[in-house]
């Protein structure tokens, strides 16, 4: 995790985030001064940001909206107070409505960001100055500390070449907290084709088979918000196991980038997970990221213990060797 410490001080009304990155200062600066790169990490997992305005000059403003997995929206703005390329910048950071107007009911703060070289890369110190103890407490209560940690954890993938970051590492499972798991897999192929492979029943049935010895017996895809999907599997030949299946509802879609669905065993209302699929393409390769939200820790551990990651890796390998290679 890039964040090594988060310090709140009531005497100075500040929250300071200290993080270290294995990249030079100029590369980290570039990530913070390009809205397209910022969108990949400014916002915790499940709440990606979209910057709708970007005037990177002293006195200029940036506006963004974070989009939650259930259609929630949270908007904010930066007003640039100082820019010292590539060593840091200072902004007035506040919450806003969808038009970018400041929200007076939520605390605004001055945020100063500094980048310093280290032997291994860059140390970032980000200090937020609040107006009152109440504002500092409100920010902490809103989850700012954990949200910052999980958001910064996404920056490693931005700072590195995508293949350097993920190629050859297979399906990776990261436990973010008691109820959230992030699964990533690099797939050689365009984002558009990987998206189709996740939503076209004829393509899905070619690769989403899980471990060897299983076949998909039913595939009903959902392409519009509110539609339901249904997938079923059964063992083949001498393979042991009982047929099973999943079903759920499509809650959000932004083709070919993001789709959010619920998931539960067929015929059961609970337990139900929230699956947030994100696709990012760079130089002909696509990073598949699935953020899974479980109802509780016990359910998370029970599902992971089934060998889910192994089944996903077998399916992703089949995706590359059959669908994308055709």
Summarize this, please?
With about 325 residues, the protein is an alpha+beta fold. The protein has helices at about 25-30, 35-40, 135-140, 145-150, 155-160, 160-165, 190-200, 200-205, 295-305, 310-325, and strands at about 5-10, 15-20, 50-55, 60-65, 75-85, 90-95, 110-115, 120-130, 170-175, 180-190, 215-220, 230-235, 245-255, 260-265, 275-280, 285-295. The chain has 2 domains: about 5-160, 2-Layer Sandwich (Alpha-D-Glucose-1,6-Bisphosphate, Chain A, domain 4); about 165-325, START domain (Alpha-D-Glucose-1,6-Bisphosphate, Chain A, domain 4, 2-Layer Sandwich), CATH 3.30.530.20.
Q: What would you say this structure looks like, in words?
A:
The chain has an eight-stranded antiparallel beta sheet with strand order 1-2-8-7-6-5-4-3. An eight-stranded antiparallel beta sheet has the order 9-10-16-15-14-13-12-11. With 326 residues, the protein is α+β, with helices and mostly antiparallel strands. It is elongated and about 70 Å long. The model has no long low-confidence stretch (mean pLDDT 92). It has helices at residues 25-32, 35-38, 133-141, 144-152, 155-159, 162-166, 191-199, 201-207, 297-304, 308-323, and strands spanning 3-9, 14-21, 49-54, 61-67, 73-84, 88-96, 109-117, 122-129, 172-175, 180-188, 214-220, 228-235, 244-254, 258-265, 273-282, 285-293. The two termini are 38 Å apart. A hairpin with a 7-residue loop joins strand 14 (258-265) and strand 15. Helix content is 25%, strand content 40%. It folds into two domains: 3-158, 2-Layer Sandwich (Alpha-D-Glucose-1,6-Bisphosphate, Chain A, domain 4); 163-323, Alpha-D-Glucose-1,6-Bisphosphate, Chain A, domain 4 (2-Layer Sandwich).
